[in-house]
Amino acid sequence: MTIMQLGKTLDKNPIVLGMVQKEYYNETIFEALRQMKDRRICYVSLNKPAKTLHHAFALHNVPMEKMFFIDTVSQGLGQDNGEDNVLFCSSPAALTELSIAIGEALKSGAFDALFFDSLSTLNIYDLGSSAERFTGTVITKLQSGDDQGLFTCLEDDQDTPLIRTSSMQVDKVVRFPELYGRIDKKRKNTALALLGGIGISGTLMFLHPGGAVTGYVVGGGVSGTPAALLLGFFTLLAVTFMAYRGTLLRPVEKEQLLAMKPAKHDKKKLRSQYHGKISHWLESLECAIF
Predict the structure, then answer these.
(1) Residue 117: which H helix or E strand, with range?
(2) Cα(4)–Cα(2) distance, rounded to whole angstroms?
């Protein structure tokens, strides 16, 4: 299966587990969401703050107009600033909170698909069979409501008990080798373009078209033509931008995640709070549409 067929795959196999190679993880998430752009998505994040996801998705042209987030890390980082389209849980290991949040999202009937990022994060906690029971419960809720779900994990974790069990519970397990080939090609072309820009700017810095050394001097004695300096500036800007894009969606460090302890909550109050937040977002979304 190619990632371009993800939408059709979900229509035929509503609950899918995507196994992703670590070095292609972010690009795979971006492309998967682009292929699901016509769906109203509840995005469950176990290792990245919602604010970070907002910035990264905007930068990579991932539509967010119909996306709602369940964020399990911002509260532990002190970053739960009350965004309208975000539910906050105290920790990725707060399975009761997370189950209530997902349950309220699915009961609302507002979402076409649940995007769960990622099962691999649950593996860092010593949850025993609790993680497997939790995942099984979420899958059962999706099945009973005829909802779609895309769970992600790292390929390196495929032999862990949680991923093995989840693989047997979902409708289909998919991988994306075709996408990796396209990503490699794009990375190579980008690197060649940047190297070419650096090479051209370096040549123009010291030579004019006739091949003689120019006498153009700037500031502290840097020789070059205005065109060379401008090209060099934009090349540096491009390198900086690519580096920024590459680091923008780094997951929270394992040590920080482990330090986030589940909080104690009154389940009834928590359920009411989550229900109210989802309802408020839906009302604002409908107002924006009409």
Answers:
(1) strand 113-117
(2) 5
Is residue 252, in this structure, part of any structural domain at all?
A: no
Strands 217-218 and 15-20: unpaired
112 within 8 A of 39, measured Cβ to Cβ = yes
Q: Which of 157, 126, 152, 151 is nearest to 138 (CA)?
A: 151
Q: What is the pTM of this model?
A: 0.83
The CA distance from 200 to 46, in Å, is 44
Give the tens place of pLDDT for each residue, 222-261.
455 665 555 555 555 544 544 444 445 789 999 999 999 9
| CB-based contact 238:28 (threshold 8 Å) | no
The structure tokens listed for 26 are: 């972010």
CA 150 to chain centre: 13
Question: Taking a C-beta distance cutoff of 8 angstroms, is the pair 26, 180 a contact?
Answer: no
Task: Clarify whether residues 19 and 120 are in a common domain.
Answer: yes
Q: Which domain holds residue 231?
A: 187-247
Residue 61's region, left for phi above 0, alpha for psi from -120 to 50, else beta, is left
In angstroms, the CA 287 to CA 273 distance is: 21
Cα(93)–Cα(116) distance, integer angstroms:
14
List C-alpha distances in Å: 290 to 39, 181, 252, 283, 286.
18, 42, 38, 11, 6
Are residues 14 and 53 both part of a single domain? yes
